Amino acid sequence: MKLTVASCLFPISSDVRRNLEYVARQIQTARDRGADADGYAAHFPEACLSGYAGVDFASHADFDWPCSENANARKGYSTWRGIPASGSSSARRTG
Prior knowledge:
- By secondary structure, the chain is an alpha/beta fold.
- The chain has one domain.
- Helix content is about 30%, strand content about 15%.
- The chain contains two helices and four strands; from the N terminus they run βαβαββ.
- The chain has helices at about 15-30, 65-75, and strands at about 5, 40-45, 80, 85.
- It has a four-stranded mixed sheet with strand order 1-2-4-3, covered by helices on one side.
- The longest helix has 17 residues, at about 15-30.
- It starts with a strand and ends in a 9-residue tail after the last strand.
- The model has no long low-confidence stretch (mean pLDDT about 75).
C-alpha cells in the first residue's frame, strides 16, 4: 500500500482557535485535492495547537486552556475530517 504524508506547517501562535483554523483549512485543502483516509496522512508540528510558551509567546498566564483541552479531547489527533492526522499541544501542569 502506498502512503502519502503531508507535512503541514503554519505560523503557530498562542491563539488555539486560530491554530485550529489553520489545521482545519489544511486538512480541507488536502481533501479538496483528493486525499482520503486510504493511504493518506497529515502531520502537524509539535505544539501546533498551543505553541511554545517562552518561544511563541511569553507565558501560559493568559492561555486558553479550556479551548486547547477541548480540541485535544474532541479530535484526539487521530482523524480530522476523515484524514489521519498527528500533532500535539501543551499539557497543563498542576501540583
